[in-house]
């Protein structure tokens, strides 16, 4: 009888402590869903991805309740809350949009010149990519490159040199711009979300370009990082060209940023630089 009671107690305890949370991620301003946002644990390679309607499901069963759950996406203020408070509270996560009042700036051609920065390699010998079938970590991987800068610049285009793309649906690519701290990405500098659908027909001569000249993306006299990640799940893969003996920075979900100095993905940017 004691044995039976013990088994029942273990099962009952397991039911009580199992914590799979279902909820939705929305914009607080208009209650619209934020599709494919990543919800995870700060400094941990663990999390979940919301669907196209902002719905998510995350298993917090064996996670330390004192750790913080977070959602970070360009154009929105980071959400962060202790796991215990999150479990006990509302599971609809409302993100506040960043509000920055910036006066309209007219670019005078005489005061600015154009440059392309970054890696422009177009080779199949060195490749970086997302291949969910090869590695489950690719579903949450964010990687990017660093840029040294001591000028006022405006971002015009983000370019990816792509050597191979196979997908059953359009890829939702999210770009972010981070400040630098202790040599690693730190805080997002974006005031709006930079997300775009990628399909094969948008790749011209091996390059996919995201024109952001109509966005307010200014970087003022500071070093920065440009990163990319595939937000939605898909069957297939995407591979970028790379260049040897350069550094790439990467993380999974909201785990710690890591630096690897072997090769760098062919991610480059067009900018207007103040003279």
Number of helices: 2
- Strand-residue fraction? over 45%
The helicity comes to: under 10%
Helix/sheet category: mainly beta
H/E element sequence? HEEEEEEHEEEEEEEEEEEEEEE
Cα end-to-end separation = 84 Å
**Which outline best applies?**
globular
Structure explained in plain terms:
A hairpin with a 2-residue loop joins strand 12 and strand 13 (184-188). The chain is 8% helix and 50% strand. The strands form three sheets. Strands 8, 9, 10, 11, 12, 13, 14, 15, 16, 17, 18, 19, 20 and 21 form a 14-stranded antiparallel beta sheet that branches. The chain has helices at residues 2-17, 83-88, and strands spanning 20-27, 38-41, 47-49, 55-59, 68-71, 79-82, 92-95, 112-118, 127-130, 141-147, 152-167, 171-181, 184-188, 194-198, 203-204, 207-211, 218-220, 224-230, 236-252, 258-265, 267-274. The longest helix has 16 residues, at 2-17. The model is unreliable at 7-16 (pLDDT under 50). It is mostly beta strands.
How is this fold's topology laid out?
Blueprint: H1 2-17, E1 20-27, E2 38-41, E3 47-49, E4 55-59, E5 68-71, E6 79-82, H2 83-88, E7 92-95, E8 112-118, E9 127-130, E10 141-147, E11 152-167, E12 171-181, E13 184-188, E14 194-198, E15 203-204, E16 207-211, E17 218-220, E18 224-230, E19 236-252, E20 258-265, E21 267-274
Parallel strand pairs: 1-7
Antiparallel strand pairs: 1-4, 2-3, 2-5, 5-6, 8-21, 9-19, 10-18, 10-19, 11-16, 11-17, 11-19, 11-21, 12-13, 12-14, 12-18, 15-16, 19-20
């Amino acid at each position: 009888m004691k044995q039976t009671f013990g088994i029942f107690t273990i099962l009952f305890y397991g039911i009580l402590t199992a914590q799979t949370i279902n909820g939705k991620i929305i914009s607080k301003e208009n209650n619209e869903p934020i599709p494919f946002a990543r919800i995870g644990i700060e400094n941990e390679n663990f999390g979940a991805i919301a669907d196209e309607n902002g719905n998510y499901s995350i298993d917090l069963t064996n996670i330390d309740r004192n750790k913080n759950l977070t959602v970070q996406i360009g154009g929105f203020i980071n959400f962060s809350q202790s796991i215990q408070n999150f479990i006990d509270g509302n599971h609809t996560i409302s993100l506040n949009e960043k509000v920055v009042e910036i006066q309209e700036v007219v670019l005078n051609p005489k005061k600015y010149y154009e440059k392309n920065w970054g890696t422009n390699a177009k080779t199949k010998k060195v490749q970086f990519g997302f291949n969910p079938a090869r590695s489950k970590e690719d579903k949450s991987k964010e990687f990017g490159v660093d840029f040294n800068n001591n000028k006022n610049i405006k971002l015009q285009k983000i370019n990816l040199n792509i050597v191979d793309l196979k997908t059953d649906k359009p890829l939702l690519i999210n770009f972010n711009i981070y400040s630098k701290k202790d040599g690693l990405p730190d805080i997002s500098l974006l005031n709006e979300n930079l997300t775009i659908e990628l399909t094969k027909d948008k790749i011209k001569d091996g390059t996919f370009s995201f024109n952001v000249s109509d966005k307010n993306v200014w970087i003022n006299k500071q070093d920065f990082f440009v990163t990319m990640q595939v937000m939605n799940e898909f069957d297939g893969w995407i591979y970028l060209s790379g260049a040897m003996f350069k550094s790439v920075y990467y993380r999974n979900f909201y785990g710690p940023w890591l630096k690897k100095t072997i090769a760098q993905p062919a991610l480059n940017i067009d900018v207007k630089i103040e003279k």
